[in-house]
Write a structure and sequence with these properties.
Elements: E1 2-8, E2 13-20, E3 25-29, H1 36-44, E4 48-53, H2 65-72, E5 75-79, E6 96-99, E7 104-107, E8 110-116, E9 125-131, E10 141-145, H3 158-163, H4 168-183, E11 191-194, E12 212-213, H5 214-220, H6 222-225, H7 229-237, H8 247-256, H9 271-279, E13 284-287, H10 291-294, E14 298-299, E15 303-304, H11 311-318, E16 325-328, H12 334-342, E17 349-353, H13 355-362, E18 364-365, E19 368-370, H14 372-379, E20 384-388, H15 392-397, E21 404-405, E22 421-425, H16 430-441, E23 447-450, H17 453-459
Parallel strand pairs: 3-4, 4-5, 5-6, 10-11, 13-15, 13-16, 16-17, 19-23, 20-21, 20-22, 22-23
Antiparallel strand pairs: 1-2, 2-3, 7-8, 8-9, 9-10, 11-12, 14-18
Helix pairs in contact: 4-7, 9-13, 14-17
Length: about 475
């Protein structure tokens, strides 16, 4: 048997390539939309992708299962659990097998047993692997998707928070408790291959270790040690982070079937064409340069989301699916940026433009950067308004006196006064730089952000409100 893990650090998502070296067949579990790297690795190992399996209808990234069915003729193993509202609408148009609890399927001499593990979502499945080709008589491990992570379990509130399905959080928490009890009955030696690592919004406190075992999780994962159902439900629902805005769209897209990827190149345009596209309106100019560079010379009217580890998350929060996108990007980054946006179905990139061209065509803007002491002095001015763009848990843990809380993910539509100086901060300075570019793009004239964020300000000895 061949097994390799693939990790998308921007989505904190794991995909798995499992192959039978005797027959040359291989399967991908939870494939990303861009699976080219995985397919290439399979070919290098002398394997051909014949199948893909989904653990559930994903909310945080665009599934690549339909694309693999189209490109490679792969058979899809999809959940048939969860009831009528949780079926894959595109299953009839591909070679798909709908799985129920207790079902078995094989890829060559590698066997998979299906275990229905609802709670994160009603249709969630886990897959127990046995390497029969290697002579094993019993299972080696389990692919848990968004059910069990290293040190945590999947959150049951996403359907309610992201998709507006009232009452599903409580019901999901109850199902999750029952699924955990069943998981605890598995052999301790089984390897646990989770669907996400640290940084995913699908849980509260996911570990950064890529694998675990059933026995280790039973000893160390809080959810495995909580025996009281009501206490479990209260704890799993308490303090969950806000669900990113794009999660609702991902649920819809992955259920109905993602659009097949376009293979046409996206043009790199000059100043004239860039201005024509901007003048057409209803679009967004997305500047992907580092904040330190963009903050000194913003492309007028653009929002700056630096192309780094957090790029996809904030793009999902801040870009509407009905907005054409003009991307300001350094040469050599176009392909990676396109892939990152397409990984959450933001497919509407109209053109790329180089920074110097965009600055020449649109003009420049800027926001101020203040040290903690300068920020404290600026707060004393009569027209100053302090904007805290951190998340709810950070705000509740401690904040500046007099600050207003306006979470970054909502800042493009928040109502704010245009006649006041806006002093923006987050925890470290990265999110407030994005926020400052948004405010400038919205036409606010006097915007300054705190270098080093709340952490630096607190360390400098300034007062906080608990």
């Amino acid at each position: 048997m061949f097994l390799q893990t693939f990790f998308d650090e921007r989505l904190a998502q794991y995909a798995y390539l499992i192959g039978c070296q005797r027959t040359g067949e291989a399967l991908i579990i939870d494939p990303p939309r861009h699976s080219e790297e995985i397919v290439a690795r399979a070919e290098k190992e002398g394997l051909r992708i014949t199948a893909a399996a989904e653990t559930h209808i994903h909310a945080d990234f665009t599934s690549g299962a339909r694309q693999l069915a189209e490109d490679l003729g792969a058979r899809l193993y999809l959940s048939g659990e969860g009831g009528e509202g949780w079926q894959y609408n595109y299953a009839d148009s591909v070679d798909a097998v709908l799985l129920k609890d207790g079902d078995h399927f094989s890829v060559g001499n590698v066997d998979f047993q299906v275990m229905h593990t609802p709670g994160h979502t009603p249709e969630s499945l886990s897959y127990i692997l046995t390497d029969r080709g290697g002579g094993a008589a019993g299972p080696l491990g389990i692919f848990t998707g968004d059910f069990v992570f290293v040190g945590d379990i999947g959150r049951p509130d996403l359907l309610e928070k992201a998709a507006g399905m009232a009452g599903t959080a409580d019901e999901g928490a109850k199902q999750l408790f029952d699924s955990v009890q069943r998981f605890k009955g598995l052999p301790d030696h089984l390897i646990v291959w989770p669907g996400h690592g640290a940084g995913s919004a699908c849980g509260k406190s996911l570990g950064a270790v890529p694998v675990s075992t059933v026995g280790y999780e039973k000893q160390n994962n809080w959810a495995m040690k909580e025996e009281d159902r009501d206490a479990f439900i209260g704890r799993i629902l308490e303090g969950q982070p806000e669900a990113p805005a794009y999660f609702a769209m991902m649920k819809k897209v992955n259920k109905e079937g993602p659009d097949l990827l376009g293979r046409q190149p996206i043009p790199v345009v000059g100043a004239g064409r860039f201005n024509e596209l901007r003048d057409q309106g209803n679009g967004l100019v997305l500047d992907t340069r580092p904040a330190a560079e963009a903050g000194k010379a913003l492309v007028k009217g653009a929002i700056n989301i630096p192309f780094n580890k957090s790029f996809t998350n904030w793009a999902g929060w801040l870009i509407g699916y009905d907005e054409p996108i003009l991307v300001v990007a350094e040469e050599g980054t176009d392909g990676a940026i396109r892939e990152a946006l397409e990984s959450i179905h933001l497919d509407q990139i109209k053109a790329f433009v180089r920074p110097e061209t965009a600055l020449e065509a649109a003009g420049t803007d800027s926001y101020g950067t203040l040290s903690p002491d300068q920020f404290e002095e600026a707060k004393k001015q009569h027209d100053a308004l302090v904007i805290d763009v951190r998340n709810d848990s950070e705000w509740k843990a401690g904040r500046m006196p007099g600050a207003q809380h306006h979470f970054l993910g909502h800042l493009r539509t928040e109502q704010l006064p245009h006649d006041r100086k806006l002093l923006v901060h987050c925890q470290s300075g990265a999110r407030s730089a994005i926020a400052s570019s948004i405010l400038k793009a919205r036409g606010f004239r006097d915007v300054q952000h705190l270098a080093g964020g709340f952490g630096a300000w607190k360390s400098s000895g300034h007062a906080i409100v608990d």
